[in-house]
Design a protein that fits this description.
By secondary structure, the protein is α/β, with parallel strands linked by helices. It has a 7-stranded mixed β-sheet with strand order 3-2-1-4-5-7-6. The longest helix has 17 residues.
Length: 251
């Protein structure tokens, strides 16, 4: 189950202040760009209520958040659900978003399997995660803090990509975001905005956040060949011959 219900609550609140709000805005701008022409009917975000702006980046008509937290945003469509027992019909969703959800679970792979089960053939799943090989990952191991988000598990991209492959998903794209150091002071953080452009040019693999976009594979339809069980010679023997036909005509 979830490591700690209170931890999830703290993560939800952290996204509304300083560094968390900046992170959320960066991820929102990224999704606005890649989802602008992605059509479909159903989009699901598995996360926390304050991530609702990420879901709004999609132009899909039916949008819902799955979360174990009580929804205080009554204007947002939320389904209160445990992460390991998602109440969604298999193969019914066009887009699933997992924004840092795996990092606060005891068994992240189980949730990923559940999320993949929901996706239609050729549907997408987009996963945001903190990169262990970055300034954000360095701070996690340096400070040994129990505060959010450093108390979460920063899962390497290779492990998540392996899980996706085992779930029969193909990786479409991998992106890196957030090259600024995790500075809580918002004014200082904004002054370092130039590092975003510089980081993508020079140290692209070292972004603080990775984004994995994967697509559900389509199982090709294999035509079934029909095989005659009865041999042609046997079939020919059952047909009336010329003698039998003439006798029938005389009658």
């Amino acid at each position: 189950m979830v490591k700690n219900y209170r931890t999830i609550q703290h993560w939800d609140q952290w996204l509304t202040h300083d560094l968390g709000a900046c992170l959320l805005e960066t991820e929102k701008q990224f999704l606005l760009h890649i989802l602008a022409d992605r059509y479909g009917k159903h989009a699901v975000l598995i996360g926390v209520p304050h991530q609702h702006d990420l879901l709004k980046c999609s132009i899909m008509s039916n949008q819902v958040i799955l979360t174990p937290l009580i929804n205080k945003h009554k204007h947002e469509k939320c389904i209160e659900s445990e992460y390991y027992n998602l109440p969604v019909t298999p193969g019914s969703v066009d887009l699933v978003l997992l924004p840092h959800t795996l990092e606060f679970l005891d068994n992240p792979r189980q949730l990923l399997v559940e999320a993949c089960r929901m996706v239609k053939p050729e549907g997408l799943i987009i996963i945001f995660g903190f990169n262990p090989i970055s300034l954000w990952g360095l701070k996690k191991w340096w400070v040994k803090s129990k505060d959010i988000p450093w108390s979460g598990s920063f899962i390497p991209t290779n492990k998540v990509k392996n899980w996706l492959q085992l779930a029969d998903f193909k990786l479409v794209k991998q992106d890196m975001l957030v090259f600024r150091p995790p500075i809580a002071h918002q004014a200082t953080y904004q002054k370092l905005k130039f590092l975003e452009w510089l980081g993508k040019k020079i140290i692209a693999p070292l972004g603080g956040v990775y984004v994995l976009t994967a697509q559900a594979k389509t199982i090709p339809l294999t035509p079934i060949k029909l095989h005659w069980k009865q041999k042609l010679s046997a079939l020919h023997a059952t047909l009336p011959g010329p003698t039998m036909q003439s006798s029938i005509e005389k009658k």
